[in-house]
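note to self — DONT lose this again. spent like an hour looking for the file last time. sequence + predicted structure for the chain T wanted, 127 res
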Amino acid sequence: MNSRERFAAIMAHRQPDRVPLDIGATYPMTGVRSQRELAEFLGLPGKPRPVGAWGFDERIMEWAETDFRGVGRIVNLPSPHTKTISATKYVDCWGIQNHGTAIRLRARRTNIAANINSCRTRRVNRG
């Protein structure tokens, strides 16, 4: 099953061959430093190939067998949850409170090694 077929299956409430995977669609993981460190850790050859609205490195998405690609902010979703709390705090359309990019990036970097090792195990087990 390819990415399109996998996405079509989940949208039609059918079981795909595996859970569709997305990486790079959220801003905190798109930082140049985070991507560079991840690409180096994974041993990916060549120069970065930024794609999509956030400029995420296609080499990383190919390694992770990502099923989705960003297309930018097409619409602002209407939501009763969206509100600005302060200059650095806001609630997004899903009702999730965000405290600014720096805090989220720090949390991501703390867990990045564990996430990478998990991905490696998944790839090895996949064969």
